[in-house]
Amino acid sequence: QVQLVESGGGLVQAGQSLRLSCATSGLVFSPYVMAWFRQAPGKQREFVAAIRWSGGNEDYADSLKIRFTISKDDTKNTQYLQMDSLKPEDTAIYYCAAGVRWIQNERDDRMYDYWGQGTQVTVSS
């Protein structure tokens, strides 16, 4: 049984940082790509960042690339999202996702096979 478990969310003030983690278990092979998406209240889920497990190529939403950094630890089957200079508009539930097959558009959430339960990030002004 494949499981993705996020952690690290919480309540912070604007300008502070958080690091989210997503621990993966149950995959027979390494994923092709892992990503972070977020969903704010009343809004659609949106792409945040993705990382190719082989090679480590990264992709970011244009508006977030300066403040957010995605990374991974192969030995722990864990990916991370470092979020700096947080803003109130970053408030959302953050989800990690794993795609086990080749994905043409890693920004499309329909391409992913497995999802975590989400972790709440709240940024106060």
Mind explaining what this structure looks like?
The protein has 125 residues and is an all-beta fold. Helices cover 0% and strands 50% of the residues. It has strands at residues 3-7, 10-13, 18-25, 33-39, 46-52, 58-60, 68-73, 78-83, 92-99, 114-115, 119-124. Strands 2, 4, 5, 6, 9, 10 and 11 form a seven-stranded mixed beta sheet that branches. It has a four-stranded antiparallel beta sheet with strand order 1-3-8-7, with no helix packed on it. Strand 5 and strand 6 form a beta hairpin. It is globular. The mean pLDDT is 95.
Share in β-strands = over 45%
Helix coverage percent of residues? under 10%
Q: Supply Rg.
A: 14 Å
Order of helices and strands: EEEEEEEEEEE
Secondary-structure map with pairings?
Layout: E1 3-7, E2 10-13, E3 18-25, E4 33-39, E5 46-52, E6 58-60, E7 68-73, E8 78-83, E9 92-99, E10 114-115, E11 119-124
Parallel strand pairs: 2-11
Antiparallel strand pairs: 1-3, 3-8, 4-5, 4-9, 5-6, 7-8, 9-10, 9-11
